């Protein structure tokens, strides 16, 4: 992948008027080119249209995107990985972990969690890795572990889900307690009985935020 050429094309659709609002929305943690999601995805479709979906991921390109000052380049890297999702191997979890712990915030994390989740369906070894992440000092690794089964429906591994969630009780971190609630709320659409029983069993140990989110569809 030609990083410089791709970055040049991204800069060509820079929207000055969007920069300040987008940076403010992300609490001024990152610089932006002002490219909103629909426009970025349209360009990504053009940039990546000729990629052979059986090609291995160019991690050098991904890390150049991640090192770039502009947040849209991290988003573009994730667009690229998603196109080649089916080529990910167990060994690639190491590179994904590097992305998780670098320039971390909810926007990239909430894209990577589903990538990791799909991998965990294909490689059972990842369940143990996620259980380790669920007790990490890094809150973003923990958030990935908590929410990696979102949208799994009947394929949800409830034993893994329960262990990961209970590992994160008593947290006073907003992003962790919100994630716990989301994981339960999403699964309640598929198995409300399991979620109700979970809440009955553990509500005394859970934050009010987690309970509120988990109960939304019950």
Describe the 3D structure.
By secondary structure, the protein is an all-alpha fold. The protein has helices at residues 3-12, 16-25, 37-47, 59-67, 71-83, 93-100, 106-122, 125-133, 139-147, 158-166, 174-188, 192-202, 208-214. The longest helix has 17 residues, at 106-122. The chain is globular. The mean pLDDT is 96.
Task: Walk me through the topology.
Elements: H1 3-12, H2 16-25, H3 37-47, H4 59-67, H5 71-83, H6 93-100, H7 106-122, H8 125-133, H9 139-147, H10 158-166, H11 174-188, H12 192-202, H13 208-214
Helix pairs in contact: 4-5, 5-7, 7-9, 9-11, 11-12, 11-13
The ordered string of helix (H) and strand (E) elements is HHHHHHHHHHHHH
Counting DSSP H or I runs of 4 or more residues, the number of helices is 13
For the sheet with most strands, the description reads:
none
> Looking at the structure, what is the overall shape?
globular
Q: Please give the radius of gyration in angstroms.
A: 18 Å
Q: What structural category do the secondary elements indicate?
A: mainly alpha
**Approximate helicity band:** 55-70%
The low-confidence runs, each spanning 5 or more residues with pLDDT under 50, are none
Strand residue percentage: under 5%
Quaternary state reads: single chain
- β-strand number: 0
Mean pLDDT across every amino acid position: 96
The end-to-end distance, rounded to whole angstroms, is 47 Å
């Amino acid at each position: 992948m030609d990083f410089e050429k791709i970055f040049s094309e991204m800069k060509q659709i820079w929207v000055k008027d969007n920069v300040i609002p987008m940076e403010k929305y992300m609490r001024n943690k990152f610089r932006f080119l002002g490219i909103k999601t629909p426009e970025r995805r349209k360009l990504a479709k053009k940039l990546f249209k000729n990629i052979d979906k059986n090609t291995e991921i160019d991690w050098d390109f991904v890390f150049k995107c991640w090192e770039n000052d502009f947040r849209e380049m991290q988003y573009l890297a994730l667009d690229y990985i998603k196109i080649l999702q089916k080529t990910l191997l167990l060994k690639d979890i190491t590179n994904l972990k590097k992305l998780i712990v670098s320039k971390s915030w909810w926007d990239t994390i909430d894209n990577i969690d589903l990538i990791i989740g799909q991998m965990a369906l294909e490689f059972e070894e990842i369940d143990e890795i996620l259980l380790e992440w669920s007790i990490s000092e890094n809150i973003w690794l923990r958030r990935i572990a908590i929410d990696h089964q979102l949208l799994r429906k009947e394929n949800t591994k409830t034993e893994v889900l329960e262990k990961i969630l209970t590992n994160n009780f008593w947290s006073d971190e907003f992003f962790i307690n919100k994630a716990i609630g989301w994981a339960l709320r999403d699964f309640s659409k598929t198995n409300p009985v399991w979620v109700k029983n979970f809440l009955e069993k553990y509500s005394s140990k859970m934050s009010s935020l987690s309970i509120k989110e988990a109960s939304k569809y019950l």
